[in-house]
Amino acid sequence: MRNPLGTARHRTGLVTVAALAAVTALVGPGVASAGPNSDPAVVAASVAPDNGRTCTTSELPVDLQPGVVVAPGSDLGVTFDRERNDQFVVVKLCLPDGAAPRAVQVLTHGITYDHRYWNIADPADPGADTYSWEAAAAEAGYATAAIDRIGNGESSRPLSAFVDITSNSTALHNVVQALREGSVEGQQGGFDRVALVGHSYGSFTSMIAASRFQDVDAVLLTGYTHRVNNRTPVAIETGIYPAFLDPQFAGEPLDPGYATPRPGTHRGLFYAPGTDVDPRIIERDEATKGTVTQSELANFPLVQTTVLDIDVPVFLLNGDNDGIFCNQELIDLGTDCSSAERVVEQERPFFPKAPSVEAYVVQGPGHDLNAFFQAPEAFEVSMDWLQGVVPATG
Q: Where is the signal peptide, in residue numbers (predicted)?
């Protein structure tokens, strides 16, 4: 079976290239953190300390290989006939204190977030690790590499048309290669085992990268299933608008294809209908929001129906109140997240080559699983599963 995104290469039309070049000349490339006009104190307060680990943040050059969906049902493998080599992603590599891990978890965030999603501060106890996946992984003996996806956070921001699932998964593959080679700043040698861990669109990216390149040892998908709640498409498209219209991105050289949540919509998009969350986390989330491109959203429905070539163990972790992917009503197209068994039953057909597909449903949380009171439970279950398929040491 051909890889779901394939390897076909086609040239873009001269008119298209000219149009893109004109827009690029007007807005230029950009480099920005989430909400560059956000209050620095709020940004700092939203991040937990790096307890129990030594971390190094650096820029890693990546290939930019965007794809283009010509029409519904077309070959998802169509890509632009060029690769740009002036792009980079930010990688935060953390090594646990007193350990020499042979395995690394590559952590990939969802839309409108960046690598900070994996290290959320506890408003009730700023020195604690309550909501830090990074800390839980370090305690379990793992190294972590939390990235800012291409076009997000402090990674480079090419023209929005070039930021899609193909360029995202290609960049993630570049990160995996570098980690195996030992060429990421802060490494003490290459890693023998690599697990991809994603949240939401980061799970989508991890899944596609694992299927296309088949160079990882396990895939852990959080806040993601192949079905979406009835209201999700409309809620997302009506909940975002061009980022250059938002005060947090005023003055940034972002073309109109970069979007961000409208003020006051974070609770509805990423937390509802769950209530088991500190409201201060939501407030900080709103104040430090990032972006998404229309190109990232464009081929989502098509790839959602694609059977994958993943040939390593897969684990799905969701909150039962995930209002984006899990059904919340009797008549709903979302995934039945009432039990792990039901999730596996619905997801197994998409992973025919995976030696195992397992799941866990955390009772209470909504979509942003790491930010809810039940985060420690989610972390413990995830580390236990990872130790069984990709041991941290040895």
A: 1-34
